[in-house]
Amino acid sequence: MRCQDRVGLGELAMKKINVALAFGVLSVSIQATPLFAETVQSLRGDIPVEKPAEIPPVPRTMAVDGGIDVNYEDQPPLIPHSIDKTRITLNQNSCLSCHSREYSKTENAVRPPKSHYKTRDGKKLKQISTGRYFCTQCHVPQAYTKPLVQNDFKSQPE
């Protein structure tokens, strides 16, 4: 066959177009990068990432008698006291020394709901379910702090 070893004009033109497009995309992305980088506002302020930031003081934990109101339906209750010395390990959960079924009345503490004593399949248990054992996965204490960013969240009316 004739001209087997020659590149056709159409193929050559397509290669040139692809190379030109690749350079065009590359140049636009390089030029656009500083524009996007300047719009990011860091919580560190003007401190560069390479320099260590000043460590803020540890905020005082809220202590609220009677508990803290929840802001939305099905929100896990907030912990209304300090948990600084509370230990939760595989072998020990010091939350349960006050909040378990057996001690909650004498300690005047909130008892975990029945759902915490059931498996995923709804089978009743005598002890807290292993899926609910690590309380601080859902329940957290609150502290007296200044917001890091503006927050206009409003809870839903009941």
From TrEMBL:
User: Which keywords does the record carry?
Assistant: Electron transport, Heme, Iron, Metal-binding, Periplasm, Signal, Transport
Free-text description of this protein's post-translational modifications in UniProt: Binds 2 heme C groups per subunit.
Gene Ontology MF, one = metal ion binding
GO annotation terms (biological process): anaerobic respiration
Positions contributing to heme c 2 binding: H116, C135, C138, H139
Signal peptide residues are none
Indicate whether Zinc-finger appears among the record's keywords: no
Q: Where does heme c 1 bind?
A: H81, C95, C98, H99
Q: Where in the cell is it found?
A: Periplasm
Q: What is one cellular component GO term in this UniProt entry?
A: periplasmic space
Q: Which InterPro entries match?
A: Multihaem_cyt_sf (IPR036280), NapB (IPR005591)
PANTHER family (alphabetical): PERIPLASMIC NITRATE REDUCTASE, ELECTRON TRANSFER SUBUNIT
Report the function annotation for this chain: Electron transfer subunit of the periplasmic nitrate reductase complex NapAB.
The annotated subunit structure for this chain is:
Component of the periplasmic nitrate reductase NapAB complex composed of NapA and NapB.
- Similarity comment: family membership: Belongs to the NapB family.
Identification of the protein by name: Periplasmic nitrate reductase, electron transfer subunit
